[in-house]
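Subject: Sanity check before I submit

Could someone independently write out the structure tokens for this chain? I want to compare against mine line by line before I put it in a report. The sequence has 190 residues.
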Amino acid sequence: MSGTGLIKGILRSLRGNVRLLALSTLTAILMTACGGGDSSPPPGNGGGGGNNGSTIQAPVTVVVADGQVVGGTNITVPTGTSTLNAEMLGVLPINSGGSAQNTGDRIQRGAIGQVLMFGTGLSGSVTVAISGPADILVSNIVTRTATDGTQGVSFDVVVDLNAALGARTVFLQSGTNQLTSFTGGLEVIP
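---
Independent answer below. Compare away.
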């Protein structure tokens, strides 16, 4: 629709309701109707090509290699691939056999137990951290192997009598700073 046609359409719709329309109000209506007022390019567009509001441009593919930094974008690809992946977690009595599930497990306030985790690259050399307040103590981190050969780790936990209830995330970090987590996998129950 041309600017003149738009003005006529607005005036027709206002006829009978408003007899006098201030120029500044008309300008504000026109700028809103035309999507105007700011001629700068949309954020993240860098001024090149521009999205004019009526069409969406196709995404731009950026090809990068390990460790390469690409200018003009906000993308960095870390060197190498992570070989650490926590896939299963289970809670069992200390020094006993047990199993782990891909859904995680529960532990009671005031309990002493052992957390067993399996997944790619897990071993007793990882550092263990548990999200939430510092009311679960971790000790005795040991390498384990499942009956099917899957690598794993176990560690003893002591849960405070007044530990916060709810799901906790278990973080495992390797000596080479690779990080994996089992999100919400350890739930503290009453």
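---
OP: Matches mine. For the report I'm noting this point. The first strand starts at residue 85 and ends at 92.
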